Structure to design on (443 residues):
């Protein structure tokens, strides 16, 4: 009689990878939308404020301070003795009004923001964005439009350091989603505002329609992200981490390129006490080799954008001066979008190289303004596209390598503190652009 074979044991079912993939896709999409919404008001607010002020000026006596809110170059030589087609006030004035509140937030908030849970931070950022749209759309005086710009700046600054800190609770690839979303805000925000107003909507109605943006921000955070249970969303918790052994401990900046786990899981290793102020200062010191090249990149590119672009005018081109300036800005934003979305394809560890290349761009265009040797605007179009590529690449790679090379216990603070680098560069560029603009317009 044939012996009956024992029943074969079925292999243990493999963990369902589709659920993990779906959660990963949700998180990437959520951070993309958070990046888009966080920078959206920042992108459209100044041009919208200018349109609203134009309406005010048609009803009221012109206010000379409104010149500081002009975002688009309006064309027309405002300086009769200048060989350049100059505005009397540099667009750097707008840059400073927009960046200084953000800079103040980024310099101070990383040391105290951990006392405010993430849920409250997101609601505050959404409130500031909504407030900026409402203030500017219903403004009846210059100070109201300026206050709207400040609201947008504060919300974007706090949002940036909040969401960069939040990435430590997720797989590191969400940094690519965040970077791509912030790049998309530059192109999408400008195109949407211009398209709606071009279609016949008034600036006020266009701004009110954009109140959907802070709503999408809240929906993305509270419903789209797969938030880990360890996240201190509504409670005030000191999120700290175990003291790792010497074999696991890595310096903030040791130059190591060893592969490490792609998942940041700070809450799974809680036990150590909170970071002291001295420890935070040590982390900041280690961050300098990331912050300095990032700041230099942004100094060079915003010096170009706010100090030189409006002076690079080619009168024989079929585009007007205002149209040339808009295309410069648009191509710059396209370059930023492409490079901030490139983290999944290429990673650049040598951040100083990006900085030096951007400085070369600034020096080249400064000489081009002074000696007017560039043959056509098409050359400038190519340079500003390349400028955007360098700036976006520096941004996403800076935060990727900070996340990778920082110990678990310091990572959340480091991501927030390093966000000050770009704002410092932008503010310095705004200050430097004033005397340069004045010099060229006096020639």
């Amino acid at each position: 009689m044939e012996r009956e074979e024992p029943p074969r044991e079925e292999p243990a079912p493999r963990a369902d990878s589709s659920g993990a993939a779906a959660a990963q896709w949700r998180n990437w999409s959520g951070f993309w939308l958070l990046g888009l919404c966080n920078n959206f008001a920042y992108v459209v607010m100044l041009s919208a404020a200018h349109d609203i002020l134009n309406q005010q000026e048609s009803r009221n006596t012109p206010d000379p301070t409104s010149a500081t809110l002009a975002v688009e170059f309006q064309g027309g030589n405002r300086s009769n003795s200048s060989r350049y087609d100059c505005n009397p006030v540099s667009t750097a004035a707008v840059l400073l009004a927009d960046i200084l509140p953000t800079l103040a937030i980024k310099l101070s908030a990383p040391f105290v923001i951990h006392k405010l849970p993430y849920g409250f931070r997101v609601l505050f950022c959404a409130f500031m964005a909504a407030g900026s749209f409402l203030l500017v759309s219903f403004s009846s005086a210059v100070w109201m439009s300026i206050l709207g710009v400040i609201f947008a700046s504060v919300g974007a600054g706090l949002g940036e350091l909040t969401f960069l800190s939040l990435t430590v609770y997720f797989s590191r690839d969400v940094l690519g989603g965040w970077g791509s979303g912030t790049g998309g805000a530059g192109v999408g925000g400008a195109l949407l505002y211009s398209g709606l107003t071009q279609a016949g909507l008034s600036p006020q109605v266009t701004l009110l329609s954009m109140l959907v943006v802070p709503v999408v921000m809240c929906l993305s955070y509270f419903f789209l992200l797969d938030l880990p249970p360890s996240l201190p969303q509504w409670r005030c918790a000191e999120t700290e981490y175990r003291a790792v052994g010497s074999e696991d401990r890595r310096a903030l900046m040791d130059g190591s390129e060893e592969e490490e786990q792609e998942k940041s899981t700070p809450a799974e290793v809680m036990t150590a006490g909170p970071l002291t102020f001295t420890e935070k200062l040590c982390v900041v010191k280690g961050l300098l080799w990331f912050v300095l090249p990032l700041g230099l990149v942004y100094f060079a590119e915003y010096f170009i954008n706010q100090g030189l672009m409006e002076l690079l005018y080619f009168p024989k081109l079929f585009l007007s001066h205002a149209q040339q300036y808009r295309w410069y800005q648009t191509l710059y934003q396209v370059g930023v979008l492409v490079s901030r979305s490139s983290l999944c394809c290429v990673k650049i560890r040598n951040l100083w190289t990006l900085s030096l290349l951007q400085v070369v761009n600034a020096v080249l265009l400064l000489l081009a303004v002074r000696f007017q040797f560039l043959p056509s605007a098409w050359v400038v179009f190519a340079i500003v596209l390349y400028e955007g590529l360098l700036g976006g690449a520096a941004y996403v790679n800076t935060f990727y390598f900070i996340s990778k090379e920082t110990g678990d216990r310091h990572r959340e603070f480091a991501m927030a503190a390093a966000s000050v680098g770009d704002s410092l560069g932008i503010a310095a560029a705004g200050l430097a652009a004033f005397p340069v603009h004045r010099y060229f317009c006096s020639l």
Remarks:
- Residues 345 and 390 are 15 Å apart (CA to CA).
- The chain has one domain: 26-54+68-75+89-232+274-441.
- Residues 61-80, 238-271 have pLDDT under 50 and may be disordered.
- Residues 26-54+68-75+89-232+274-441 form a domain with the Growth Hormone; Chain: A; fold (CATH 1.20.1250.20).
